[in-house]
């Protein structure tokens, strides 16, 4: 059961009007229903968020967070070591990684990354281009990961 609108905290929204051709509106309504959105507005809002993130990504200077997903052949000589070396080389951008053995020779690795979009794309390109990498995809969001550790506070003068 979906939560009641009144149960959610109020957020400020602006209303806009959008004109769509009937066939496009019909497709939108089908997507709203199949994905379980509460409304057309929710679906359109998600699409706008995605397009804004893509726009920021194309500008290249925006700091973004996201994932780099790699599928690779783990039996390719030296590949795992090269990928680990690249992660260390870009330690300021690679926050975390997770790898999963899919089959005897296939590995799925997901890297959590953050930094300027253009730099993350360059890192992704370098990793995806490694011999033995079958495919890869960088997915960036217009979001920033909070600092893992706050800077140490200066000691209080009375201590």
Give me the secondary-structure category: alpha+beta
Mean pLDDT: 87
Determine the strand fraction and express it as a percent band: 15-25%
Largest sheet: 4 strands, antiparallel
CATH architecture of the largest domain: 2-Layer Sandwich
Gap from first CA to last CA: 54 Å
Looking across the biggest beta sheet, what order are the strands in? 2-3-1-4
- CATH superfamily annotation of the largest domain: ACT-like. Chain A, domain 2
Explain this structure:
By secondary structure, the chain is α+β, with helices and mostly antiparallel strands. The protein folds into 2 domains: 21-59; 63-141, ACT-like. Chain A, domain 2 (Alpha-Beta Plaits, 2-Layer Sandwich). It is 36% helix and 25% strand. The chain has 4 helices and 4 strands. Strands 2-3-1-4 form a 4-stranded antiparallel beta sheet. A hairpin with a 4-residue loop joins strand 2 (94-101) and strand 3. It starts with 21 loop residues before the first helix and ends in an 18-residue tail after the last strand. The model has no long low-confidence stretch (mean pLDDT 87).
């Amino acid at each position: 059961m979906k939560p009641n609108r009144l149960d959610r905290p109020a957020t400020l929204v602006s209303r806009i009007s959008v004109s769509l051709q009937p066939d496009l509106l019909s497709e939108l309504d089908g997507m709203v229903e199949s994905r379980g959105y509460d409304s057309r507005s929710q679906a359109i809002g998600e699409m706008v968020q995605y397009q804004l993130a893509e726009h920021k990504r194309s500008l290249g200077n925006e700091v973004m967070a996201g994932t780099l997903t790699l599928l690779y052949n783990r039996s390719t000589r030296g590949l795992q070591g090269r990928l680990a070396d690249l992660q260390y080389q870009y330690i300021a951008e690679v926050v975390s990684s997770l790898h999963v053995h899919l089959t005897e020779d296939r590995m799925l690795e997901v890297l959590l990354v953050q930094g300027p979009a253009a730099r993350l794309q360059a890192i992704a390109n370098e990793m995806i281009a490694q011999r033995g990498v079958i495919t890869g995809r960088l997915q960036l969001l217009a979001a920033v990961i909070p600092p893992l550790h706050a800077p140490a506070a200066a000691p209080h003068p009375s201590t």
